[in-house]
Design a protein that fits this description.
By secondary structure, the protein is an alpha+beta fold. Helices cover 23% and strands 37% of the residues.
């Protein structure tokens, strides 16, 4: 399941990131979003969703949310 299908307020563990873009992988890694890390969807928005990773909250778009498999 990807983050677009995830329930709001429930904590998930990132299983993998499905992208061929090395820059995007490096960006997500810098945020702390990589395999084995907990992630929580705070809210779903029209253009994406708000997620909590470690101590930060981030707004990610729908394409990125579909690439993060939990």
């Amino acid at each position: 399941m990807n983050l677009r299908a995830a329930e709001e307020g429930k904590e998930y563990i990132v299983q993998r990131i499905e992208t061929d873009d090395e820059e995007l992988d490096a960006f997500l890694f810098s945020l702390g979003c990589y395999s084995g890390e907990p992630i929580t969807v705070i809210a779903h928005r029209k253009g994406g969703c708000v997620v909590s990773i470690k101590d930060g909250r981030y707004n990610i778009d729908n394409d990125l949310a579909e690439a993060i498999i939990v």
